[in-house]
Specification:
This is DUF4263 domain-containing protein. The chain is an alpha/beta fold and 403 residues long. The chain has helices at 7-19, 23-36, 47-63, 67-80, 86-93, 103-130, 136-149, 169-183, 189-197, 200-208, 214-236, 242-249, 313-331, 333-340, 364-377, 386-397; strands spanning 260-263, 277-281, 285-291, 302-305, 308-311, 343-352, 381-384. The strands form two sheets. It has a five-stranded mixed sheet. The chain has a two-stranded antiparallel sheet with strand order 4-5. Helix 1 (7-19) runs antiparallel to helix 2 (23-36), helix 1 packs antiparallel against helix 4 and helix 2 runs antiparallel to helix 3 (47-63).
Length: 403
């Protein structure tokens, strides 16, 4: 889900700052606005970081009993996440207009109601003519189904200025959402179902597939392949930073293998530590992914020692950092389970570091073998190069190239 960060939100947070009293609440608000306005030129930054910072403001305000600020920040969050529309927020807090309420919005809402009631009256007449024995409850049920189908309104290309509402689409979409939830890993189930039910071609393919899986699998494989191609380009870039690698990996937990069911919402789990990517295993336990540089890594991954290739000090340092994360998670496991519902007692970790291209004189298989040998002797921590991760993910897609 995209996070909205614009001038309206900035103005509203300014009003919230005026209402705040406690210095901790004010400081958290200032940090959130500073993050918003730290983008290049006029672009404002949003994303998960902004949501987390606003949630922190709400938490600070609740801790000190500033409930007016809590309510205002809650509206900020709902606006950023698209649950409150811009005209609604503007009119509710008079962000850009003093005195009387916005008469243009008032007229707009009135026109919408007039159109809606007119449609309801006409639809009632048509339904009554077609169903003379129907009662009040039947009519209510009919309009309830129309309301659901309205989410999938069409704008036909051959009828400019006109719209089309097809009966029964909401019921199909609900069924699709359930099938997608059970069989395919898709983040926005409702949006995926909406795209399918509004596509005649997709519906035709779905109808021809007795198991109802072909469309879903094709769409998801296409999405994964596109994400993997972007990741490979980032991994091969000799100038890319760890932050860019993290952005390319976020939301793609399938790349790490089928034993992971998703990403945890919180990255700062222990005071002083912020994990790069927190994954959740199928057994409910946490799996921490620590990211180092890929093709831009400075220095080698392996070195010769007594005739064999062994990992260098920077690999061991990265493993040590991951082990420290696990120690901190172990020490705070009771609090994390009670507050966040995350099981860390059986937590594990993965270190992603380097690329065979940083040592072109060493065979890739020798680098991978040295890291695998290290993995067999380090409990709860696995080390991989980015290239091996991407290659494994590509093979899991079963593409002709991977074969």
């Amino acid at each position: 889900m995209s996070v909205r960060s614009d001038f309206t939100l900035d103005v509203h947070l300014g009003r919230v700052l005026d209402a705040a009293v406690h210095p901790d609440v004010k400081a958290a608000l200032v940090s959130a606005r500073r993050h918003m306005n730290s983008g290049s030129r006029s672009h404002r930054r949003g994303g998960k970081t902004l949501v987390q910072m606003l949630e922190a403001v709400r938490r600070h305000a609740a801790d000190v009993g500033e409930w007016q600020v809590v309510r205002l920040v809650q509206d900020s969050l709902e606006y950023a996440e698209g649950r409150i529309l811009q005209p609604d927020l503007n009119d509710r807090y008079r962000l850009f207009q003093d005195g009387v309420r916005n008469t243009n919005l008032q007229k707009g809402v009135g026109n919408l109601l007039r159109t809606g009631f007119g449609f309801a009256a006409e639809a009632s007449r048509e339904y009554a003519d077609a169903n003379p024995q129907a009662g009040v409850h039947d009519l209510i049920a009919y309009f309830s189904s129309l309301a659901e189908d309205a989410r999938f309104l069409e704008a036909p290309e051959d009828r400019p200025g006109r719209y089309r509402l097809l009966r029964g689409r909401a019921e199909i979409a609900v069924w699709l959402e359930r099938v997608l939830r059970e069989r395919v890993d898709i983040e926005d189930l409702e949006e995926a179902a909406r795209r399918i039910v509004t596509s005649p071609e997709a519906i035709a393919l779905l109808a021809a597939d007795a198991q109802g899986q072909m469309v879903f699998r094709a769409a998801e494989l296409q999405r994964r392949a596109a994400g993997l191609e972007v990741l490979r380009k980032v991994v091969d870039d000799t100038t890319v930073t760890e932050h860019a690698l993290q952005r390319a990996l976020e939301g793609q937990h399938w790349i790490f293998g089928g034993r992971f069911v998703g990403e945890a919402a919180h990255r700062r789990l222990v005071s002083g530590d912020e994990v790069d990517i927190p994954l959740i295993r199928g057994d409910g336990a946490l799996h921490v992914v620590e990211l180092k540089r890929a093709a831009s890594l400075g220095g080698p991954l392996v070195k010769k020692y007594r005739g064999s290739w062994v990992p260098t000090a920077q690999v061991h340092n990265a493993v040590g950092q991951a082990v420290n994360y696990l120690v901190g998670l172990d020490e705070n496991r009771h609090r994390l389970r009670e507050e966040l519902g995350i099981e860390t007692r059986r937590a594990s970790a993965m270190v992603l570091i380097g690329h065979p291209s940083v040592q072109p004189s060493v065979p890739e298989e020798s680098i991978n073998e040295a890291l695998r040998t290290l993995n067999t002797h380090v409990n709860r921590v696995e080390v991989l190069t980015y290239k091996e991760l991407v290659d494994n993910a590509e093979r899991s897609l079963g593409t002709p190239d991977s074969a």
